[in-house]
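From the methods appendix. Each design record in this collection lists the tokenized structure first, followed by the designed amino acid sequence. Records were kept in a plain field format so they could be parsed without special tools. The example shown here is representative of the layout used throughout.

RECORD:
FOLD TOKENS (331 positions):
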């Protein structure tokens, strides 16, 4: 059984260091990253260094955007991830970090079983931003999709219901994901679709890239998504993220699970952006052998205007359950 630490503190505030799962997880390689041979830069924390009470074990990823470490939370002995952002912090950095910490704290209080928690969000002595997050063992949904292709409606429901529950719970408290895609979801039992254990990662940190003055940070701020194929049209036009932005990204996930492909894809970035902004959504039933009832529902999820999308994730899940039930009954 997956349990969470719950302690009382003066003033009723939760300590950011106490979000880690009670269940002991062996510090093996996280699913989200492949261990890469990469060179750390001068000033980057090294193996054995301590950041926010966590001892770095190894480097999992480093590029122009970020460095990701596997570490051990020293007080508890549990495995965590540390993400260090590249680039100089902009003038509004401290304000955005404070807002992100408040949002992360709100999400921790939810103690939602399908949300991977963010602990500390802070800065190194040299000013760079880092976050410490819950370690989630398993397989990234995007990688599973590549291997397995399209899924049956019932298999899709077993995956998207807990994901939608997590997004909906966060939206209810006024928070957002801002960077949702299939890369945000980790499944710990990918071989058993009847009993997948799913967690959505990345809540509480979506705005951090806005305050990093690097090309990668600016791109994240403009696109609003790690995966451009999931980016909502309004983000591509420079508007702020909203719950409808997360809903659009959720719709692209539904589309890909049903058909085995994204609704829009091109290796050319400008063409992909144009498709999101201008092209009608290809009907799922024209791409794969799926019930035509999915066409209308997913078409609304991927509407160009946020106001034309379903009112909430909860509403979408209710409609989706009905469509899937009918599809299964007549299959």
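DESIGN:
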């Amino acid at each position: 059984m997956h349990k969470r630490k719950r302690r009382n503190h003066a003033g009723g505030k939760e300590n950011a260091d106490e979000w880690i799962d009670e269940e002991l997880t062996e510090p093996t390689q996280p699913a989200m990253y492949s261990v890469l041979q990469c060179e750390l830069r001068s000033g980057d924390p090294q193996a054995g260094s301590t950041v926010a009470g966590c001892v770095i074990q190894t480097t999992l990823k480093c590029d122009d955007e970020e460095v990701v470490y596997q570490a051990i939370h020293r007080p508890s002995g549990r495995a965590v991830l540390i993400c260090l952002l590249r680039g100089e912090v902009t003038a509004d950095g401290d304000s955005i970090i404070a807002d992100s910490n408040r949002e992360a704290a709100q999400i921790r209080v939810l103690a939602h079983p399908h949300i991977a928690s963010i602990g500390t969000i802070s800065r190194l002595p040299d000013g760079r931003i880092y976050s410490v997050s819950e370690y989630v063992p398993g397989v990234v949904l995007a990688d599973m999709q590549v291997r397995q292709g399209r899924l049956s409606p019932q298999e899709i429901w077993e995956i998207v219901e807990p994901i939608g529950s997590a997004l909906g719970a966060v939206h209810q408290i006024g928070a957002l994901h801002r960077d949702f895609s299939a890369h945000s979801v980790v499944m710990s039992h990918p071989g058993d679709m009847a009993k997948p254990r799913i967690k959505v990662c990345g809540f509480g940190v979506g705005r951090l890239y806005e305050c990093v003055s690097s090309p990668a940070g600016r791109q994240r701020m403009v696109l609003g998504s790690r995966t451009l194929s999931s980016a909502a049209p309004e983000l591509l036009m420079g508007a702020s993220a909203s719950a409808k932005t997360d809903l659009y990204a959720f719709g692209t996930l539904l589309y890909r699970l049903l058909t085995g492909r994204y609704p829009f894809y091109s290796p050319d970035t400008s063409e992909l952006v144009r498709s999101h902004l201008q092209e009608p959504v290809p009907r799922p039933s024209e791409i794969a052998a799926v019930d035509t009832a999915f066409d209308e529902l997913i078409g609304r999820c991927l509407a160009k205007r946020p106001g034309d999308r379903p009112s909430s994730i909860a509403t979408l899940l209710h409609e989706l359950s009905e469509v899937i039930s009918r599809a299964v009954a007549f299959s």
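APPENDIX NOTE: The radius of gyration is 20 Å.
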